[in-house]
Specification:
Layout (H helix, E strand, L loop, with lengths): L3 E7 L15 H4 L3 H7 L3 E6 L9 H8 L12 H7 L9 E10 L5 E3 L9 H8 L2 E4 L2 E7 L4 E7 L27 H22 L2 H8 L7 E9 L6 H5 L3 E4 L3 H9 L3 E3 L12 H12 L4 E6 L1 H7 L3 H22 L3 E6 L16 E6 L24 E2 L3 H8 L9
Parallel strand pairs: 1-11, 1-12, 2-14, 9-10, 9-11
Antiparallel strand pairs: 2-13, 3-4, 3-7, 3-8, 5-6, 6-7, 12-13
Helix pairs in contact: 4-9, 10-12, 11-12
């Protein structure tokens, strides 16, 4: 019997023991009756989404979980962010993932997220520098989710081997971008010029005058990173023989799934923030599952809590994930293979991605059970799926769904 597949990815799911939680991880501390009821009937393990010791990015780890080896075609996160923001990319365009940021009078970055500014303010700021020409290149800029934004540079003689302007930390100046070759040096010059124009435009904007009056940090700079050329990728349906849909709100994941040819839905109330309506995502996933062979559900809030060092917030989000899982399982029935994992670990103690593996759990009616009573980093390590690589997950899910051909006679 062929089954459908639903993969739930909680961004930054993996964690480490937290003193604030009595030495438990957020997954261990969360009350999650629906997930743990499923855990008792499921197979468990730990998964390195890339390879042991490698610190995964969200883009490369999702590609791996979806069955794509990033090496060889991955050029940077920027193109996926641009697609997720609704921008059209042409062959040869260079796209950057950016943040609205706050710099002081000396150009020092004091907030890389500008107080987590979001729409409609970001849209108003982006409109000031949305379309221009610099040194003969077509430069386009657009807001994305929350404090994020995207920059696309198109034209002749451009290269993608450029350094970031985002210093990656507060207390440092925005960096001058540099190129590794002549074509990339041209791109870097254009990026640096755009950075100057954006700073001047944003500093004098109505948005920032109003933010100052409210005591909020100004979004007076653009910090760019992860530049790359839009790669050529085999569509998901051709690679796996499955129709593909995704329920996501974050620009990166929306763009990545669109690049793979998937249909992407963002239901009302679903956001890429802590205020997201996860039950709306669950309902959207069930509706999509009636039409698609494979559905990805992405939750960003777990990663945000990790980056913010917010252990209690991560516990709260996981408890909301549990409620969503309960609704999904009530509606999915026995015709679905259901898997839960993360794309990487973002421990609240580190506030950043780490190389720690993430737990993974696979359930389908009639499959083996590992007899484990809780889904968390420690309990799952005793399961039968231990030490998977991300690239191995899709073949497993397809196999349990009856979607793989027999190898041999």
């Amino acid at each position: 019997m062929k089954r459908k597949i639903l993969l739930l990815v909680c961004d930054g799911l993996g964690d480490r023991p937290s003193p604030e939680l009595g030495g438990r991880t957020p997954l261990q501390a969360a009350a999650k009756p629906n997930i743990d009821a499923l855990a008792r009937k499921a197979m468990h393990g730990l998964i390195y989404t890339l390879s042991p010791g490698v610190v995964p990015g969200s883009d490369t780890s999702h590609l791996s979980l979806l069955g794509y080896e990033p090496q060889g075609f991955y050029t940077g996160r920027g193109p996926f962010e641009a697609l997720g923001a609704g921008m059209k990319l042409n062959r040869g365009d260079i796209a950057f993932r950016c943040n609205f940021a706050t710099v002081d009078a000396h150009g020092i970055v004091i907030d890389r997220r500008a107080g987590r500014i979001r729409e409609p303010e970001t849209a108003e700021l982006a409109s000031l520098v949305s379309d221009m020409r610099i040194d003969g290149a077509h430069v386009r800029f657009r807001e994305s989710t929350e404090h994020r934004c995207v920059l696309v540079i198109g034209g002749k003689g451009l290269g993608a081997e450029v350094s970031d302007t985002d210093p990656g930390a507060t207390g440092m100046s925005l960096q001058l971008s540099k190129g590794k070759d002549a074509a990339s040096a041209k791109t870097a010059r254009i990026l640096n010029k755009f950075t100057e124009i954006a700073h001047a435009s944003f500093t004098e904007s109505t948005v920032n005058r109003e933010r100052a009056a409210r005591g909020l940090p100004p979004a007076n700079a653009v910090a760019a990173r992860s530049g790359g050329i839009y790669p050529s990728i085999e569509p998901f349906c051709e690679k796996h023989g499955l129709t593909f849909g995704a329920v996501a709100a974050e620009g990166l994941i929306k763009g990545l799934c669109a690049a793979l040819g998937g249909e992407v839905v963002t239901p009302p109330g679903a956001t890429a923030g802590m205020d997201t309506d996860l039950r709306a995502k669950g309902r959207a996933a069930l509706a999509m599952l009636s039409e698609k062979d494979f559905v990805l559900v992405h939750v960003k809030a777990t990663d945000i809590a990790g980056h913010d060092g917010n252990a209690r917030g991560k516990v709260d989000i996981l408890q909301k994930v549990d409620a969503m899982v309960g609704e999904i399982m009530n509606g999915a029935g026995d015709s679905t293979v259901f898997a839960i994992t993360g794309d990487h670990s973002t421990p609240v103690s580190a506030k950043e991605h780490t190389c720690d593996p993430v737990p993974v759990m696979i359930y389908a009616a009639g499959l083996r059970s590992d007899g484990i009573s809780s889904f968390d980093e420690i309990s799952s390590s005793a399961g039968s799926l231990t030490w998977l690589r991300g690239i191995e997950l899709m073949p497993l899910l397809k196999g349990y769904a009856g979607r793989n051909e027999k190898y041999g006679a």
